[in-house]
Amino acid sequence: MNTIASEYSSEKQSTPIEHSFNPYSDNGGTILGIAGEDFAVLAGDTRHTTDYSINSRYEPKVFDCGDGIVMSANGFAADGEALLKRFKNSMKWYHFDNNDKKLSMNAAARNIQHLLYGKRFFPYYVHTIIAGLDEDGKGSVFSFDPVGSYEREQCRAGGAAASLIMPFLDNQVNFKNQYVPGTDGKEKRPVKFLTVDEVIKLVRDAFTSATERHIHVGDGLEILIVTKDGVRKEYYPLKRD
Amino acid sequence: MAGLSFDNFQRNQFLASKSQGQPKATSTGTTIVGLKFDGGVLIAADTRSTQGPIVADKNCAKLHRIAPRIWCAGAGTAADTEAVTQLIGSNIELHSLSTGRQPRVVTTLQMLKQHLFKYQGHLGAYLIVAGVDPTGAHLMSVQAHGSTDVGFYLSLGSGSLAAMAVLESQWREGLSREEAIELAADAIEAGIWNDLGSGSNVDVCVMEVGKDAAYMRNYRTPNVREPKQQSYKFARGTTAVLKESIINVCDVEEQEVDVSA
Amino acid sequence: MNHDPFSWGRPSDETYGAYNTQIAQAPSFPKMNTQQPIVTGTSVISMKYDNGVIIAADNLGSYGLLLRFTDVERLIPVGQNTVVGISGDISDMQHLEQLLDELETENQYDNSSADGAEALKPSYVFEYLATVMYNRRSKMNPLWNALIVAGLEDGKPFLRYVNLLGVTYSSPTLATGFGAHLALPLLRRVVDTEADVGKTTLETAEKTMLESMKVLYYRDARSSRKFSLAIIDNDQGLVIKKGLKVEGMAWEFAKNIRGYGTQKV
């Protein structure tokens, strides 16, 4: 037995043993927002985890913030809650300062960007999605990265099982990779707005499937639906294993 | 020269630090239990296998047969539990043929621990070994480094604490076969519901003195998936055919044969 | 060009020389208040039942491997209908005790109505603690604890958890530390959903809690036989039972275990 002499042999492990406090943790869960023609939905599972443990089977993470805006910040739960609190507070001050003017989706999104970017070097470790109706009454969904980069989208999945759900959404909401039969791939299947019922079916199937294959997803599904009549909640149980 | 070679250790460490790290093995973040009862012993396991947070197999089998009446429940690296179990299983059979005696649980345990000790923990196999032989019913466990343990009730894997909690509060001496099966299944269920590394179904294998082992695959199935809300069958032609070519793998010749002759 | 994002937007060393950290008394490394737990308390476990909540914790203060203090009280009553159970660092626990004491005193001064209409409710106590915990973690100077606030609010059981990261959650059954792995599976066999709470009597709940404390004493190496258990009940009010002992352990079978494999004697 001998050790081959090589240039690596002079490499030394020089990293000191780190014993520093890690201010973040991952609390699992996944969220999903879809915009329709005159409605928008934001759904999230209700499982709260750390590592291999279930902390709670019902800990809601999608909230009605008022003004027909629903919000969820998924990832590190303490930061998610802090961000939500700050946004609700900011909304309250907006009402005080502007004679109870309704906060538009565009304004809310820009405000959240500032809340997130304000902690650029100690970020809120969350994937944020808001849903509601825009100023023309059309469904709208905005999604943010942890430091505030955002975009308006037709649909977006966030959190633990985002990578499992997003391709399904691309295919079933935006009809990606689908062609009109008989056109030999010349003509893409035209996109159309889905109805509320169709969207809820997609959301339920997305979550039951994510529950099957991702250990941090399960227990319950809570969907918040925004229409011109207000915000409505629906709950469906998910598998608990 | 006999023994292990560590020639590539430094190189592997270096490569691991430079690249995305070493290839990850499928781990059976698992709940397994074994317990003794009046006249025998049994083992049970969940059926979830994971790769990180992703469920790799929803109904895998973690109960392995070493000999007809010696079975083994495995936690840890799936490939290692499988390989080590098959290897020792083969050797046990050869040993049995050579001696002309029934295989024993202690022999199995000794062979497993010597094999695992030799590999200094690099084989990630954590096993509960149970069985009946001419000396009675036995229940033991082996850890990856080669240490062993005996007991009346044992649990291993990421869900071992949940399962052990149930065993600690419900196990007693002199359980009947049926009581023992229910207790083992309950202990596995504690792992299924409370440990994210465990899930899906319960497998059980009962070994009674003087009887053939009873392997009960999917003894409980508390996690059947509800039907989907809609069908996702695509209309024919949704996927474009860009190119079509038929490859003839072999030449086909037709020939008339007179069958009546 | 130095491609390390750390040096973006900073004066380049080649032109200006190494940055002088003495300027503005800047330390060469960010200030670290990070500590580690010294004397620690193990699990706190709790559950709701039809008429209130139960919470329990043992009385041990461990100093690493040493069982150092054997009569530490880790269940802290706050006001008339709240108990806070604390695990983790004991000195940080005592700091939290002081904060809770001040909170109660301030509340007494502010409370103008005699009927206690402005008295502290469990959710107030929880919100205060959760804010303290999250703010301390955000200053990178955490209080090294996991707490459970248990109580009665408007006749309904209240149970919520917060830890050193400021992470919070509620469930009909809650446990910290080892209890989350060993006791929760047993508690959830009795109360799995919010709907089960109404079907569970005080008797059943207390029996389940005692059984869980037994399993913890069997299996948690940092636990003690002596523990306290608090009940906050709509009829009985707040009752803390101190100096309880784990009873009814089974050790009879252990003498029949010989060695670790082939040994027979």
UniProtKB/TrEMBL annotation, chain A:
Keywords: Cytoplasm, Nucleus, Proteasome
Record keyword Zinc present: no
GO cellular component: cytoplasm; nucleus; proteasome core complex, beta-subunit complex
Annotated localization: Nucleus
SUPFAM superfamilies registered for this protein in UniProt: N-terminal nucleophile aminohydrolases (Ntn hydrolases)
One Gene Ontology term from the biological process aspect of the record: proteasomal ubiquitin-independent protein catabolic process
InterPro entries: Ntn_hydrolases_N (IPR029055), Proteasome_bsu_CS (IPR016050), Proteasome_sua/b (IPR001353), Proteasome_suB-type (IPR023333)
Signal peptide per UniProt: none
Subunit structure: The 26S proteasome consists of a 20S proteasome core and two 19S regulatory subunits. The 20S proteasome core is composed of 28 subunits that are arranged in four stacked rings, resulting in a barrel-shaped structure. The two end rings are each formed by seven alpha subunits, and the two central rings are each formed by seven beta subunits. The catalytic chamber with the active sites is on the inside of the barrel.
PANTHER family xref list: METALLOPROTEASE TLDD (PTHR32194), PROTEASOME SUBUNIT BETA TYPE-1 (PTHR32194:SF2)
Protein's name in the database: Proteasome core particle subunit beta 6
Automatic annotation (TrEMBL), chain B:
Main location: nucleus
Places the protein is found: Nucleus
Domain called Proteasome beta subunit C-terminal: residue spans: 222-257
Active site (UniProt): 30 (nucleophile)
Reactions the enzyme catalyzes: Cleavage of peptide bonds with very broad specificity
A GO cellular component entry from the record: cytoplasm
Keyword list, A-Z: Cytoplasm, Hydrolase, Nucleus, Protease, Proteasome, Threonine protease
InterPro entries: Ntn_hydrolases_N (IPR029055), Pept_T1A_subB (IPR000243), Proteasome_bsu_C (IPR024689), Proteasome_bsu_CS (IPR016050), Proteasome_sua/b (IPR001353), Proteasome_suB-type (IPR023333)
Keyword Cytoplasm: yes
PROSITE patterns with a match to the protein in the record: PROTEASOME_BETA_1 (PS00854), PROTEASOME_BETA_2 (PS51476)
EC identifiers of the protein: 3.4.25.1
Record flagged with keyword Lipoprotein: no
GO terms (BP aspect): proteasomal ubiquitin-independent protein catabolic process; proteasome-mediated ubiquitin-dependent protein catabolic process
Molecular function GO labels: threonine-type endopeptidase activity
PANTHER family, per the entry: METALLOPROTEASE TLDD, PROTEASOME SUBUNIT BETA TYPE-7
Subunit structure: The 26S proteasome consists of a 20S proteasome core and two 19S regulatory subunits. The 20S proteasome core is composed of 28 subunits that are arranged in four stacked rings, resulting in a barrel-shaped structure. The two end rings are each formed by seven alpha subunits, and the two central rings are each formed by seven beta subunits. The catalytic chamber with the active sites is on the inside of the barrel.
UniProt name for this protein: proteasome endopeptidase complex
Organism: Maudiozyma humilis
TrEMBL record, chain C:
Top-level taxon of origin: Eukaryota
Gene Ontology biological process: proteasomal ubiquitin-independent protein catabolic process; proteasome-mediated ubiquitin-dependent protein catabolic process
Gene3D superfamilies: Glutamine Phosphoribosylpyrophosphate, subunit 1, domain 1
SUPFAM superfamilies recorded: N-terminal nucleophile aminohydrolases (Ntn hydrolases)
Entries under InterPro entries matching the protein: Ntn_hydrolases_N (IPR029055), Proteasome_beta4 (IPR016295), Proteasome_bsu_CS (IPR016050), Proteasome_sua/b (IPR001353), Proteasome_suB-type (IPR023333)
Signal peptide: none
GO cellular component: cytoplasm; nucleus; proteasome core complex, beta-subunit complex
Keywords: Cytoplasm, Nucleus, Proteasome
Localization terms from the record: Cytoplasm; Nucleus
CDD domains associated with the record: proteasome_beta_type_4
Primary role: Non-catalytic component of the proteasome.
Record family assignment: Belongs to the peptidase T1B family.
Name of the featured protein: Proteasome subunit beta
Provenance organism: Maudiozyma humilis (Sour dough yeast)
